[in-house]
Design brief:
single chain, alpha/beta, Nucleotidyltransferase, domain 5, six-stranded mixed β-sheet
């Protein structure tokens, strides 16, 4: 408000039917991300999505916060893990961007979860230093490799272009 009065802090949504559907029919792999709200109302939406049996995106929970930071991610992860009976994250894989606050919260709140970074975010950072279609094609081939042997083969091709890549 113009007089600096705060009327909103945050809110969290995880519908029981959606949660039950995720628990019953989805793999224990979830993606975490945030995006900006633009317009009259400012803030960020933090969301958690899974994949259903048809490999379609399955929205699990979301919240709206004033800012994406360690505190808001901690609040969100705590509520989420309580809703899905996730405990310390054993048996769950989390995929996210490299947001510093989120990385710290996952280590603290879900130490037993498998945590990986999203390939799209990795390639965005990779492409800042190593540009060109050859790198991008090889990167995505490495990401999609279904065996360690195939992965190592693609990585050798990347190294043949530039050992630092």
């Amino acid at each position: 408000m113009p007089d600096s009065t705060t009327l909103f802090s945050k809110f969290y949504v995880c519908f029981k039917a959606v949660r039950d559907g995720w628990l019953e029919g989805c793999r224990p792999v979830i993606g975490l991300d945030g995006c900006f709200l633009k317009g009259i109302v400012r803030g960020e939406v933090l969301s958690v999505v899974g994949r259903d049996a048809n490999n379609h995106i399955y929205p699990l929970a979301w919240d709206v916060v004033c800012v994406e930071n360690k505190e808001t991610w901690k609040w969100f992860i705590d509520l989420l893990m309580e809703d899905i009976n996730g405990g310390l994250g054993a048996g769950i894989t989390l995929i996210s961007d490299g947001h510093k606050g989120l990385l710290q919260v996952v280590k603290e709140r879900c130490p037993k979860a498998e945590h990986r970074q999203c390939a799209r975010h990795i390639v965005a950072n990779f492409n800042k230093r190593f540009t060109g279609q050859a790198y991008l094609k090889l990167f995505w081939r490495a990401v999609r490799a279904s065996t360690m042997e195939k992965f190592r083969g693609v990585m050798e091709k990347i190294k043949s272009i530039d050992t630092h890549a």
